[in-house]
Q: What sequence folds into this?
């Protein structure tokens, strides 16, 4: 890992080590990928203000998120099928996050189950919920998250149906991979490290779901069940229902509009993530960073505002914090690290962003996260 100096290096290594279908699953956005590109382009348009001769010898990246002390304003976002990028991927990612002193969010669509992750890490993690039509399954998942002592529930609200990713269709993506397809055989032969890791992993299917469907153990049935479970009728009343079952901190993920943000505040949720699902849902939506300040202005400090979408560096974290986010979630940035080298790769991704943020703060004359505001942006 010593020649790896930036997230793009991890992305290139991930691309070399992981089969095409799984790299494509991570890298792609929906449809023409306009929103995916806008997330990056609009962040890069924000220019930072260079300041000099300020004593920057005591820089500190520490902050809090929903009352929890964290070592830097970063959270690992929920990512489906992490265990297909690297064997036991979710456990590796969670361990790296905990060693770095930041939260990890386990996806409903993880490969390792909630219980597997809880048994293999030291501290509580966050759990992300997709509300499925089978409300009994959702209730059981929440109860499992409570039993595993998860410290926050991240309710994803921007996936009542799935935006199409062309790459996944063209690559015939499936979990587990279709080993007998000719293209895949060629691909897998050239990725022996990945194959060995996946074979060693505890699970090769959706770990949180497999146990719920004793009558449907074959993977085609599980995938079919998941596809039939996205709930287009989901609405604000369901958030009330979730609140009545989940006693802890609740974060709504996928808020992208001022009116929705105001509604989200009314639910009493403790936090919200301004997000367009990393450009994987509504293509043609504006970038996440462009809607962030409007949402922050509209809701003030009533609910903690987190941000994701396009963060690939510490400079990007600085930009999002300057626009009003309290902390940032990262998705692809750490998954590239996971595919590139498991726990060490995720640790590398976090460290790269932390070092970049530290230097960026210094060069902007900032010592503390709480000092970052609109004044660091060059007009
Ligand atoms: C995601 N995202 C996501 N979100 C969620 O709530 N549950 C999930 O299971 C997933 N799965 C998932 C898989 C992959 C491969 C990606 C890239 C993204 C969205 C994710 O949590 C986050 O919102 C975005 O990744 C943020 O954008 P960046 O950081 O990837 O640009």
A:
């Amino acid at each position: 890992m010593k020649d790896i100096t930036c997230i793009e290096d991890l992305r290139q290594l991930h691309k070399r080590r992981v089969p095409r279908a799984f790299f494509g699953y991570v890298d792609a956005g929906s449809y023409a990928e306009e929103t995916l590109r806008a997330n990056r382009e609009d962040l890069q348009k924000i220019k930072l203000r260079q300041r000099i001769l300020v004593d920057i010898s005591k820089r500190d990246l520490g902050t809090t998120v929903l009352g929890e002390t964290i070592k830097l304003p970063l959270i690992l976002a929920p990512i489906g099928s992490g265990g297909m990028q690297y064997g036991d991927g979710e456990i590796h990612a969670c361990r790296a996050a905990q060693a770095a002193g930041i939260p990890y969010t386990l996806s409903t669509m993880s490969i390792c189950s909630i219980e597997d992750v809880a048994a293999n890490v030291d501290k509580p993690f966050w759990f992300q919920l997709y509300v499925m039509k089978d409300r009994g399954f959702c209730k059981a998942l929440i109860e499992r998250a409570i039993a595993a002592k998860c410290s926050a529930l991240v309710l994803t609200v921007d996936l009542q149906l799935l935006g199409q990713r062309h790459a996944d269709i063209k690559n015939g993506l499936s979990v587990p991979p279709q080993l007998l397809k000719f293209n895949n055989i060629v691909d897998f032969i050239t990725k022996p490290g990945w194959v060995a890791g996946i074979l060693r992993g505890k699970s090769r299917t959706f770990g949180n779901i497999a146990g719920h469907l004793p009558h449907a153990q074959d993977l085609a049935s599980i995938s079919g069940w998941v596809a039939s479970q996205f709930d287009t009728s989901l609405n604000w009343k369901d958030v009330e229902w979730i609140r009545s079952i989940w006693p802890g901190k609740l974060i709504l993920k996928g808020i992208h509009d001022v009116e929705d943000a105001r509604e989200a505040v009314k639910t009493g949720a403790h936090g919200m993530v301004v997000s367009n699902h990393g450009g994987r849902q509504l293509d043609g939506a504006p970038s996440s960073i462009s809607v962030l300040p409007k949402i922050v202005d509209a809701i003030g400090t009533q609910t903690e505002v987190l941000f994701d979408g396009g963060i690939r560096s510490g400079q990007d974290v600085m930009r999002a914090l300057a626009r009003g986010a309290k902390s940032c979630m990262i998705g692809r940035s750490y998954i590239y690290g996971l595919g590139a080298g498991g726990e060490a790769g995720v640790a590398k991704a976090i460290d790269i962003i932390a070092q970049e943020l530290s230097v960026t703060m210094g060069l902007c004359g900032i010592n503390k996260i709480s000092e970052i505001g609109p004044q660091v942006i060059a007009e």
